[in-house]
Design a protein that fits this description.
Helix 2 packs antiparallel against helix 6 and helix 6 runs parallel beside helix 7. Strand 3 and strand 4 form a beta hairpin. The strands form two sheets. The chain has a seven-stranded mixed sheet with strand order 3-4-5-6-8-7-9, with no helix packed on it. A five-stranded mixed sheet has the order 2-1-10-11-12, covered by helices on one side. It is built from seven helices and twelve strands. 20% of the residues lie in helices and 19% in strands. With 323 residues, it is α/β, with parallel strands linked by helices. The chain starts with a helix and ends in a 6-residue tail after the last strand.
Length: 323
């Protein structure tokens, strides 16, 4: 079955995206057609809140303690996945994202995967002016023009890295530069049936440190209207998966699944008020989310560090039509 035939048979997301584009004042004229991607089944490893500062009393030469600084352990989890891409979900290097700390901590753990890494910006990276350490370390892998948002294609999937540090990029609401970029990007890549988005801050979270981030509702709605399947984030130092939701947090079988994966190594935290529609959660296990990007489905498994048993695994078909 061709992408065009799918597009004709499933118009809901196409109409929603067109309305969202018009509301943002984005012209649909003159946008280039996009060729169908080749079939592939890439493996992706994702987690945020990764590498302790070398100055931390828990750093212990990069090996951490029983409860903190497990970046080497989660790097070994990644190694066992043999991933095609690694997605660090922000707060990649503590405490302020200094380039020297990247070299002394992150580089000696997750840095072995730098050539296949496509990161997202966390709030701690902005501890240096303009997140300079982050952009210096990752270079072109962090996107063009130091905006902190970009996209790429992986197998039959379109993948979008967004900057949830809204105050650093002129906001995340209607009329903002990033939201207009996202609308254009989704339209240009509408022929991809499956879309994955990731950022640092979660839209929804039961964590006791930060909770829901309402500012991201416009970003979520645009992605959902465009048929995206999943939204990855870190920020809260725990693992939590939500049922498919719309941008207001209501159950929607065609909505996005949110994964909070703040289990990359720094430390783990407690729970706050349990949010509606949370499906799975754990705050006692460091680990990495493994994603298999099949042609028309997403399969996932949370892979714990050695010696731990918690896991979460399932799959879902792509609900978004070719756009």
């Amino acid at each position: 079955m061709s992408f065009d035939s799918i597009h004709k048979r499933t118009p809901r997301h196409r109409r929603n995206l067109a309305r969202a584009l018009r509301a943002l004042g984005v012209s649909l004229c003159g946008m280039a057609a996009f060729a169908s991607p080749a079939s592939a089944y890439p493996v992706v490893g994702a987690a945020g809140d990764v590498a302790c500062s070398p100055a931390s009393r828990y750093f212990n030469g990069g090996y951490g303690t029983s409860t903190r600084c497990h970046m080497r352990q989660t790097a070994r989890v990644l190694l066992g996945m043999s991933p095609n891409r690694v997605l660090p979900l922000g707060d990649i290097q503590y405490e302020r994202g200094e380039y020297s700390n990247f070299l002394r901590s992150y580089d000696r753990s997750w840095g072995r995967f730098r050539s296949i890494t496509r990161p997202a910006l966390g709030n701690h990276e902005y501890g240096t002016s303009g997140a300079s350490g982050y952009f210096h370390y990752f270079g072109w892998r962090a996107g063009a023009n130091r905006r902190g948002y970009y996209s790429f294609n992986l197998g039959s999937w379109h993948v979008v890295s967004l900057n949830s540090n809204c105050e650093e990029v002129g906001g995340c609401g209607p009329g903002s530069r990033q939201l207009r970029w996202l609308a254009n990007d989704l339209y240009r890549h509408r022929r991809y049936r499956c879309t994955l988005a990731y950022t640092h801050h979660p839209r929804f979270s039961s964590g006791n440190e930060h909770g829901n981030r309402r500012e991201l509702r416009y970003m979520w709605k645009l992605l959902d209207d465009g048929g995206a399947e999943a939204f990855l984030s870190g920020h809260e130092h725990d693992y939590e998966r939500f049922a498919p939701l719309d941008y207001l947090g209501r159950r929607d079988p065609n909505g996005m699944i949110q994964f909070v994966v703040g289990t990359g190594g720094k430390n783990l935290r407690g729970w706050g008020t349990l949010k509606p529609n949370t499906a799975v959660r754990n705050n006692r296990t460091f680990g990495v989310l493994k994603l298999a990007l099949h042609d028309r489905k997403l399969a996932w498994r949370f892979v714990p560090e050695a010696g731990k048993s918690f896991s979460d695994r399932s799959e879902r078909a792509c609900t978004g039509p070719a756009r």
